[in-house]
Amino acid sequence: MEAFAVPGLPEFETGDDIATAIEAACDLRGDDVLCVASTIVSKVEGRTATLADYPAGPRAREIAARFEEQTGEERDPRFAQAVLEESTDLVMDEPFLLTETRFGHVGVNAGIDRSNTGGAELLLLPKRPSESARRIRERLSVDASVVVTDTSGRPFRHGQTGVAIGWAGMPASRDWRGETDRDGHELEVTVESVVDELAATANLVSGEGDDGTPAVVVRDWTFGDHEGSENLYRSVEGDFVRQALREWHYEQ
């Protein structure tokens, strides 16, 4: 397969048409997968904010004070308030804020960005990224799939990688269960998160700094004839890491 960044895209602003801008910049095909950084999706959807929009409540002030006490670094309690308001679950509140967003993604600081914001003080994640992906896809003149990407850290590993937070036109994963490996053993648990793998591929091409390439086309990749699934986020009941974190906090 081939992956290439879409060249010459503008600095997106509220109300801009991502699909039209991308198709004006490259020859998109119907079997392509278009990976779009969540930053530009948030910008066109007006998901910008300032710290002044989030007067700090008692919980946010407590979190900020504890962070400063533990690290010696000052944290604006209004930022903590923004994270709390963008989250449905606070998984950890020290030494950093690990939260669940309204659409199910678990990440640091509810994915609120303070870089590549287009001049805004805060850039929030799209409210419903899969709906954003569907809207972009509907505006395309070809039947390409769309993946909305973000970068995220992972337990037990240094660094960040690209992950999918929204998708349209393809399943989130392909299911290998019931098939056999080369030794004839039946695969019992292998469900491949293809949208995350495509997002990571796109991140390799688009970069993390000032490249200005927030859209990547993945070409000549096919899903195959496997069963597909829309499940990407683990339920709380099936997330043993989250359960262990809660037990640890309770014991503290």
Automatic annotation (TrEMBL):
Q: Which UniProt keywords apply?
A: GTP-binding, Ligase, Magnesium, Manganese, Metal-binding, Nucleotide-binding, Potassium
E.C. numbers: 6.3.2.31, 6.3.2.34
The domain of life for this entry's organism is Archaea
Catalyses which reaction? oxidized coenzyme F420-1 + GTP + L-glutamate = oxidized coenzyme F420-2 + GDP + phosphate + H(+); oxidized coenzyme F420-0 + GTP + L-glutamate = oxidized coenzyme F420-1 + GDP + phosphate + H(+)
Residue ranges annotated for the Coenzyme F420:L-glutamate ligase-like domain, each copy included: 9-220
Which cofactors does the annotated protein need, by name? K(+); Mg(2+); Mn(2+)
Q: Give a yes or no for keyword Heme in this entry.
A: no
Residues binding GTP are 9-12, 38-39, 43, 116, 206-213
Q: What class of enzyme is it?
A: ligase
Q: In which pathway does it act?
A: Cofactor biosynthesis; coenzyme F420 biosynthesis
Instruction: List ligand-binding residues for a divalent metal cation 2.
Output: 151, 208
- Annotated a divalent metal cation 1 binding lies at 113, 150
What's the record's note on cofactor binding?
Monovalent cation. The ion could be potassium.
Q: Which GO terms describe its biological process?
A: F420-0 metabolic process
Molecular function terms in GO for this entry? coenzyme F420-0:L-glutamate ligase activity; coenzyme F420-1:gamma-L-glutamate ligase activity; GTP binding; metal ion binding
Question: How is this protein organized at the quaternary level?
Answer: Homodimer.
Q: What does this protein do?
A: Catalyzes the GTP-dependent successive addition of two or more gamma-linked L-glutamates to the L-lactyl phosphodiester of 7,8-didemethyl-8-hydroxy-5-deazariboflavin (F420-0) to form coenzyme F420-0-glutamyl-glutamate (F420-2) or polyglutamated F420 derivatives.
| UniProt similarity note | Belongs to the CofE family.
Q: What is this protein called?
A: Coenzyme F420:L-glutamate ligase
Q: Which organism is it from?
A: Halarchaeum nitratireducens
